[in-house]
Specification:
about 220 residues, alpha/beta, five-stranded mixed sheet, 6 helices, about 10% strand, elongated
Length: about 220
């Protein structure tokens, strides 16, 4: 698994860097910049993959990835770019040669594209699981409201997304907090306050309430 993930990461990093060059030079990379690319590519790739290993981007379960993993991914890519810029800054100062590294615009483009592609690789299994469970779950689906749109409600909704061993189809959430009205939590909207439940039952055919308010009497 480690070899496969690192191999895919390396391929995506190379793709990102080459795409950044193509965007920067309108699809035709000058020969001198091709030479610069091949010169710094091994160091650049080594920096990125080393940080992926150090920060454990290969360890988490892609099917259970969430906000914490997204933050770690962004941290790894930004740190890699910063280390690369710092390294070539000192190399250029030592060699008095400003052509050792790529243009700044390519560094920025590569960071954005790499973060997007590596993120897509890490989070697509989870998104695919959520999408497939929501549409192809076998058996009867019970229209359901979650009562409580706080952290407990978000955790409950997340657990329902992860499992196919329940019959609930969550239509939305309700909460008495005025600031939560109309918000989207985990792809489901807060549809109103608790006193809106009777109307929502009639309108959406709700047959089940799941309570996610720990201190509710």
């Amino acid at each position: 698994r480690l070899v496969l993930i690192l191999g895919l990461d390396a391929l995506l990093i190379l793709t990102s860097l080459y795409t950044a060059y193509l965007l920067r030079f309108d699809g035709r990379i000058p020969q001198e910049h091709r030479d610069i690319l091949w010169r710094f590519l091994p160091v650049f790739l080594l920096l990125r993959l080393t940080l992926h290993l150090v920060l454990g981007l290969h360890r988490w379960s892609f099917r259970l990835s969430w906000f914490h993993e997204a933050v770690r991914l962004v941290q790894a890519e930004v740190t890699g770019t910063a280390a690369f810029v710092a390294l070539f800054y000192f190399l250029q100062r030592a060699a008095l040669d400003v052509t050792l590294g790529p243009p700044r615009s390519i560094i920025v483009l590569e960071l954005l594209i790499t973060t997007s592609l590596i993120g897509a690789l890490r989070f697509s299994p989870r998104l695919a699981q959520i999408w497939s469970l929501d549409r192809f779950r076998a058996g009867e689906r019970i229209p359901t409201l979650i009562v409580g749109a706080g952290s407990a409600g978000e955790l409950l909704l997340r657990d329902l997304y992860r499992s196919d061993e329940h019959p609930y189809r969550v239509a939305g959430l309700v909460d008495d907090d005025p600031q939560k009205q109309g918000m989207s939590i985990g792809g489901r909207r807060v549809l109103g306050k608790l006193d809106a439940v009777p109307a929502l039952v009639e309108e959406l055919g709700i047959r089940q309430l799941l309570f996610a308010i720990p201190r509710l009497p």
